[in-house]
Amino acid sequence: MATLNLPPVITVAGNPNLTHIPPIYAFRNLSATTTDQKVSGNGAGEDQEPIPIIDLSLLTSGTPDQRTAVVLDLGNTCQEWGCFMVINHGIDEGLMNKMIDSCSEFFNLEQEEKRQYKGKHTLDPISCGTSVDASVTEVLFWRDYLRVLVHPEFHSPTKPSGFSEVLAEFTKAVRRVARDLLGGISESLGLDSSYIERAMNLDLSLQLLGANLYPPCPQPELAMGLPPHTDHGLLTVLVHNGVNGLQLQHKGMWVNTNIIPGVLFVHVGDHLEVLTNGKYKSVVHRVQVNNKSTRISIAMPHGPSLDTVVSPAPELLENGCHRANYTGMKYKDYLEIQHRSTLRGKTRLDLLKIKPELS
């Protein structure tokens, strides 16, 4: 596939007066896409199942009976949905709004100020740009992004003023929530609460902040914010500015997430699927754009340490499932594959699946 010849930094936000999208953004003109599959729900969620809600306070400080019930709910939602909304998570809504506003201010910086962060790799400490890596795509997506590595080493852009302080406080709080959830998920699998923390070396876990800007699009019926894909890592935690657009696959249909303001939206990543030997599936999701409102989302994948080899937990294989369905791979090697592959479906995770032997 030929590399697209783009300027050093090109952004959809920098062209607010377009009346038609450039042809390179016409995602729906491509063949073999999944963008036209039926969507469940009309935007208000009237005819779709509600996405499950987890009360984190009952997991961390509830009675024994309440905690047991939440652990059971976590297991069921991870297995049936692969995603859930988290309430009573302990992160101040004002801090969440500050983080969204700070990302908005970053996107509003002059191009020259952002150009210094033009990254070339998933693990560059700070990178910003548009769409995804142009060397592996046939089309551009209606999205500008900022990606920052915040753990185990903390990095931050120097502008806008105060960004670093907000970023440090917010991502530390989200990391705590992710670890609490992974403790409950460990228990839902019949393991002790610290199993995933130990096995995945979460003291050195990789945490990224990915801020996404989806400006109004003059032809939203042709463009995509992001195509169907899954996320690397164990869990992705997401917040947004109240403008919907995220959809996920559930029971063969696209479902509007309709995220409640102030909650955290969490979904299973590829490496939790591998660790659970496929019991908990990573979620295929995509982003639709609109012609009226700017959408800002902040997605934070939480993975194991870069040097951790992720494979099905031996304890789960011993407890009734005697065959591993996935081969092990070092996390940073998986990220290399992700960087070189397209964002169509689950092709990256398919590389780890072990085909059943023919008898």
Automatic annotation (TrEMBL):
InterPro entries in alphabetical order: DIOX_N, IPNS-like_FE2OG_OXY, IPNS-like_sf, Oxoglu/Fe-dep_dioxygenase_dom, Plant_2OG-oxidoreductases
Keyword Metal-binding belongs to the record: yes
Cleavable signal peptide: none
Keyword set, alphabetical order: Iron, Metal-binding, Oxidoreductase
Domain Fe2OG dioxygenase: 204-304
Keyword Metal-binding set for record: yes
A molecular-function term among this protein's GO annotations: metal ion binding
One Pfam family, short name: 2OG-FeII_Oxy
Cross-referenced PANTHER family: OXOGLUTARATE/IRON-DEPENDENT DIOXYGENASE (PTHR47991)
Record family assignment: Belongs to the iron/ascorbate-dependent oxidoreductase family.
Name under which the protein is recorded: Protein DMR6-LIKE OXYGENASE 1-like
Native source species: Punica granatum (Pomegranate)
Lineage: Eukaryota, Viridiplantae, Streptophyta, Embryophyta, Tracheophyta
